[in-house]
Fold this sequence. Notes:
The complex is a heterodimer.
Chain A: E1 7-9, H1 14-27, E2 31-34, H2 40-45, E3 53-56, E4 66-69, E5 72-76, H3 81-86, H4 88-93, H5 95-101, H6 107-112, H7 115-121, H8 129-135, E6 138-143, E7 146-151, H9 152-155, E8 156-158, E9 161-162, E10 169-176, E11 182-188, E12 198-207, E13 210-219, E14 226-227, H10 229-235, E15 238-239, H11 242-249, H12 266-284
Parallel strand pairs in A: 1-3, 2-3
Antiparallel strand pairs in A: 4-5, 5-10, 6-7, 6-10, 8-9, 11-12, 12-13, 13-14, 13-15
Chain B: H1 31-35, E1 51-57, E2 63-69, H2 71-75, E3 79-84, E4 117-118, E5 124-130, H3 133-140, E6 144-149, H4 156-160, E7 174-181, H5 182-185, H6 191-196, E8 200-211, E9 220-224, E10 230-234, H7 239-250, E11 257-260, H8 276-288, E12 292-295, H9 298-304, E13 308-319, E14 325-337, H10 347-352, E15 364-372, H11 386-404, H12 408-415, E16 424-425, E17 431-432, H13 437-448, H14 450-463, E18 467-477, H15 485-490, E19 499-505, E20 511-515, H16 524-536, E21 543-546, H17 564-590, E22 598-601, E23 604-607, E24 613-615, H18 616-625, E25 639-643, E26 652-662, E27 668-678, H19 685-704, E28 735-739, H20 757-774, H21 788-800
Amino acid sequence: MIPSAFDYAAPTTVEEALGLLSAADEAGDEVKVLAGGQSLIPVMKLRLADPSLVIDLGRIPSLSGITDDGDFLTIGAMTTHHVMETDPLLATHLPLLQMAAGTVADPQVRHRGTFGGALVHADPAGDMLAPVLATGATFTVSGPNGQRSVDAADFFQGYFTTAVEDGEILTSIKVPKYTGWGAHYEKFTRVAQQWSIVAVAAMVRIQDGVIAEARLGLTNMASTPLRATATEAALAGCALTQEAIAAACAHAAEGTEPASDLNGDAEYRRHLVQVVAKRAVMKAAGLQPDGLKRTRE
Amino acid sequence: MTTTAESGPAGAGRADIGRNEIGKARLRKEDAHLITGRSRYTDNMVLPGMLHLAMVRSPYAHAKITAIDVSAAKASAGVLAVLTGADIAGEQGSLPNVWPVTPDQKAPEHPAIAVDEVAFSGEIVAVIIARSVAAARDAVELVDVDYDELPVVMDLEEAFTDKVLAHTTLESNKSATWVFDSAEAGTGTSVEDALADSEVVVERTLYQQRLIPAFMEPRSTVVDPTGEQITMWSSTQIPHILRFALAITLGIPESKVRVIAPDVGGGFGGKLQVTPEEIITVVAARRMGKPCKFTETRSESLQVGHHGRAQVQRLKIGATKEGIVTGFSVNLLADMGAYLGLITSGIPILGAFMYNGIYKFPAYRFECNNIFTNKPWTDAYRGAGRPEATFAIERMMDELATELAMDPLELREKNWIKHTEFPFATVAGLEYDTGNYEAATAKAVELFDYEGLRAEQKRRRENNHPVQLGIGVSTFTEMCGLAPSRVLGALNYAAGGWEHAQVRVLPTGNVEVVTGSSAHGQGHETAWSQLVADRLGVPFENVEVLHGDTQVSQRGMDTYGSRSLTVGGMAVLAAADKVIEKAKVIAAHMMESSEDDLEFANGAFTVKGTEQSTAFGEIAFAAFSAHNMPDGVEPNLDSEATFDPVNFSYPHGTHLAAMEVDTETGHVSVLKYVCVDDVGVVVNPMLVEGQVHGGLAQGISQALYEEAVYDDAGTLVSGSFVDYLVPGAPDLPHYITDRTETPATSNQLGAKGVGEAGTIASTPAIVNGVLDAVRHLGVKDIKMPCTPSRVWHALQEAKTSGGVQ
């Protein structure tokens, strides 16, 4: 497993990285930006990607870290899943992201892999996409003409495709706080270490003994992560019972276009997402659903 | 390879010298170097001037090669040569199949590099020889091959119809038809008559999916042609067979070939092969006059390393209303893949003698059609034919129990051979020497809390609980200790089934054991040390085990088929006994007494009835100095022995699995797993436990996770570990294991073999458990692996067909 030969650059500032990108663009070189490398390196070793230049963002300190910006947390694109999983700010204000980060692959991958890298890679089975979408975050993208902001709803455009253009770099993600909301990321896999067959990111605000508001993101139910808007609407005012939540989550497959693969066909996924959504919402609301206890929750 | 014994001077003994070694849970001698990075795998070999190979492989599953342009690859930086099949057609020979199961067996030529036609995706069409791995790999993409695509046949049942042929050079996809009929063999009656007269007949078609061995260390080969001999290091289970096969395939004198299997990271049968890559590496090294290395990638390993299982089993079982089985008819289609590997054709035949399991019904017929498809060839994979047989009979016993509304354990008990009935001549023509199925089952039932779990199952059914519970039962026995050479001869296998060992005594009294059964993870060094320490009365630490190099261990039949202890271990003991006989002559001379008056115990000869004794170490030194040897006695204690078993050994066991099925998602989980195995006398219980645990994981994995899946064009879809699922520790239960012990009579120790046991019984136990959980909902069968998607679809179909029984 040896990749084709490539040049390697490790800039120390965003400006330097952008300069390298535009120079390569002018020279007609194919460039790949290396974040944690947990998807890019395997793809290069399989020779499914053959860049002539790899620009490593790992030496740019300003791209890492989580800061409290009042109503928001700003998360640097190069923040590792491990940092997300263990960060106290996230635990308090965005437990959904914290929990989802803890389900990514295995500890080695979580120590190398980055939040921004996973988002820009945009694998629809990736675990960070649906939670971010559910939060309604804003993506900060830097390019030759300065910075621009992209809403989460516009960021994911298709299989492995995002709003980040050639010559641009995702630098940070600004996520509204959901302090006090119940949250759960429910992941369905056949074995513990596997890409999600279907997963559901759920946040609920409970008031007066009912679900006042819910936000749901779906993993691997289309070429991009999806919001389960019909379910969200049905959950507004929903009683905290398994029956009521199940009835609301029966809408979870609406508007989805899941793929068929070795882990299940589209029909199965459309069924599964309703069950997984029910379980995610119940757990987010502090209830224990029926069903098999999975190895990782 | 070798280990370093941390030993003091000879005779600086420990209190427990030579006593109770057998049965002691010794930590493995092998592990210190393996877990501290001092391992030496083949890919770790670096030789001066060594060149590197990369294979150009066909992307098509069936095509004519019309032209190959290697000019760009040859001109690529660091590339020294590119060889095609045509370039080496005169020297590469045809890869060996040593088990023609019938006199009229058909098989295509099997060149290491395809010359005119490729018959599976991944078949080699050229090899790059370069100064570095990277240069070799880069040049692969520069080889331009023109193919004319041919129709592919991927499905086994479709291949059987011969509508599409896997090879243009063959007239049929059928390689051979092999039949065993108990009426013809005189071991029983006619199954046709028996089924016709049966009150109940259950007919099912079961599928054994194609599996990939997925050993930890991908295969690797280094060949050094620069000495007087050609030396090959290879990640192989079979250095001795490989040496012989290289000699006959390539026409090199056997004495000029040395094969070394250094540390080998697992095999499971997947390294019981003579591979195209090994042949090509020899050819390349001889052509270039320099050492050459080829190490496969994991992708290549999954794609083209030989696969296992892959059968369609058409089964009919007959019984009385009371549940007495009257006959079993087995009709198999066995997927050979595109070629016959070393023993591809014999794998289903190894199962032919085991479809009767532990039962004593009177009529049995087995027919197997060996069929070619456009897939990589199949061959040995942990259990090799016997897991398939056990799956068939144990699944059918459950189907029959359902049909008769009888408890599956009760049905089995009505039909199994009672412990008082051994030795028992089976309907398949074997003689089971010993066993006690009642004892193993009783222990398993108790450990499992069978009644308690049945009650829980009933509760969940009554409550319509979303997580249903099923209880899977499986018993098994297998023929281990491959194999009596006469039996192999009768089956037309090319070689014998003996094993060889040497015991060499060093001047200090330390002992070297040379074994022909080459380890690749099992723990031979530890077990053989225990055997010899016990027999010779020397400290465990003073025994060194040497293996895996044909220059050190000249004779051997290698490691597979749970044969090491029952065959190889017996050769070690026989050689050790000869050492004692030689030492006795010298001891008698030293003590000026008669040999008849000596007894040997705890590492010393004692003159009976006296205190006079001579330690083994003293005799060893006396033999070395040779100052005072009796007349006509050679001055050494070294001995060797070759052991050929008179019969197979027959381990058995009862496995019980409590399976939870989440009816909402189809997800399946093992709640409790109990297995009670009878593997005869145990040398090292920790090694046995390790074998059982690993075997269970592999068998459970067939039931729930693994499957080699191809698309219609013949490309492997499950070509990485993302799609070829193997379980990790979190996916497997805490096993409850125990043993019963009825010693085998076919060897002096009473051992039976354990390497395949867990794999064989666990697959049907799991599937029986899954079905038991959902049968009341109308589900009749679920193909392996029982994925959540398949389970859920089965539940949906049962619902829509309203098929509650």
